[in-house]
Amino acid sequence: MPTHFEGSAETKRALSAFINLARATNSVQARLTVQLEGEGLTVGQFGVMEALLHLGPMSQCTLGEKLLRSGGNITLVIDNLEKHGLVRRERQTEDRRTIVIHLTPKGLRLIKRVFPEHAKMILKEMSQLGPNEQEDLRRLCRKLGRGGKSGSEKTKREKRHDSSESQ
Amino acid sequence: MPTHFEGSAETKRALSAFINLARATNSVQARLTVQLEGEGLTVGQFGVMEALLHLGPMSQCTLGEKLLRSGGNITLVIDNLEKHGLVRRERQTEDRRTIVIHLTPKGLRLIKRVFPEHAKMILKEMSQLGPNEQEDLRRLCRKLGRGGKSGSEKTKREKRHDSSESQ
DNA sequence: CTAGAATCGTTTGATATCAAAGCATCAGAT
DNA sequence: ATCTGATGCTTTGATATCAAACGATTCTAG
Q1: Least confident of A1-5, B49-53, B114-118, B124-128
Q2: pLDDT confidence of B11, banded at 50, 70, 90?
Q3: Would the CB atoms of A13 and B136 count as touching at under 8 Å?
Q4: Best to test chain A binding among B138, B150, B154, B166 (most A CBs inside 10 Å)
Q5: In Å, what is the CA distance from B103 to each residue of A5, A133, B46, B135?
Q6: Assigned CATH topology for domain B9-130
Q7: Which of A36, A113, B87, B104 has the fewest beta carbons under 10 Å from its own?
Q8: Exposed, middle or buried: residue B138 (CB in 10 Å: 0-12, 13-18, 19+)?
Q9: Min distance A164 CA to chain B CA atoms (Å)
Q10: Least Cα separation, residue B5 to chain A (angstroms)
Q11: CA of B152 to C1' of C17 (A)
Q12: Can you give the pLDDT at residue A154?
């Protein structure tokens, strides 16, 4: 984004914070991506498999909703996972429009191994910050990630999320 | 990323911080992207034009370095900008391998208008945080974005960057 | 029962992003 | 002068990401 910019101190502060946010996220994610690619997975594929691992088999439509991806993109990612024998499609009998996606045994073995490794790497990446700093970062980002929400709605969500956030 | 995970408090903290970081960045960038698309520009195209605006005409190679993008990708982005009459290519005479990219008058008018609007929107997005929070976020992200750098190197860069960071 | 609307997944077109291969050009050594 | 290695850009192949259009299936109203 801006490599050079002028403006008020206020603007500079905001732009600088944003640039650093984007760069940091990019940089960390790039390293995580490399790790996954070492296992023959893309980030998107990992996301699908991780969701199936933790939430169980589900339709493509549901996957798209949970991962915030378009239908067309889910189709492509599943196509590639299927090609590698990591997932299988199962068309439902009660509603033949719906295809439920299952991990194959091969896929299950892979994600069961890769997921903890990935989590460990995230731990390592985030360990550049101390525990309090991680907490601060989390808090700030949660506040930022709510953009566009109304005030009263925010308050309600805040309470609900706090109880389920520990997961 | 992880929708459900188990592990030590330490791991949970790190994963949670990371997830919120990624989500916040994503969410803010999605909104910024929509704004640019309203002007007929993609994020990548905006990046190229912004660099040309502030740093002047430069080769594709240099653009790729500054924007951290691959050569092939730069070619595509420039192709599309050229198609829309926003930039033009100029092969050099001293070294005919090199193509310098220039903003066209149309391109210049557009980026001169769009850039400040974009900056304003970033200001608005970041204003969900107060000045001190923005500073904190910037500091934390800068720390995080340095992953993989050695300690002594970090110290040197830290000093140098502090003096040039105000830009 | 039938027609129209809604839903699910796929296809299409556009853009992005990378790595690797390919071609033209340049620089340096012999 | 010639050859080899390096450089800049383009092309190719693979994957991603979206919106819109499309076809099959299901649901609902009349």
Answers
A1: A1-5
A2: confident
A3: no
A4: B138
A5: 18, 42, 12, 34
A6: Arc Repressor Mutant, subunit A (1.10.10)
A7: A113
A8: buried
A9: 11
A10: 7
A11: 33
A12: 38
Q: Is B28–A5 a contact, with Cβ atoms under 8 angstroms apart?
A: no
Nearest to A147 among B28, B55, B119 (CB): B28
Q: For residue A46, how many other CB atoms are within 10 A of its CB?
A: 24
CB contact under 8 A, B126 and A5: no
pLDDT at residue B149 above 80?
A: no
The whole-number average pLDDT for the span A49-61 is 96
- What integer pLDDT is reported at residue B98 of this predicted model? 95
The answer to whether some atom of strand C lies closer than 7 Å to the beta carbon of A21 is no
Identify all chain A residues contacting B130, using CB atoms and an 8 Å cutoff: none
Give the list of residues 6+ apart from residue B117 with CB closer than 8 angstroms, or none. Answer: B35
State yes or no: pLDDT of A65 exceeds 70. Answer: yes
Tell me which of A112, A120, A141, A149 to substitute to probe the interface with B (most B C-beta atoms closer than 10 Å).
A141
Out of A23-37, A39-53, B47-61, which region has the weakest mean confidence (pLDDT)? A23-37
- pLDDT-derived band at B6, boundaries 50, 70, 90: low
pLDDT at residue B5, rounded to an integer: 56
Please check whether strand D approaches the CB of B59 to within 7 Å: yes
Chain B nearest-CA distance from A81, in A, is 17
CA-based radius of gyration for chain B: 19
Residue among A11, A165, A167 minimizing CB distance to B119: A11
> What CATH number has the domain spanning A9-125?
1.10.10.10
Q: Residue A134 pLDDT more than 90?
A: yes
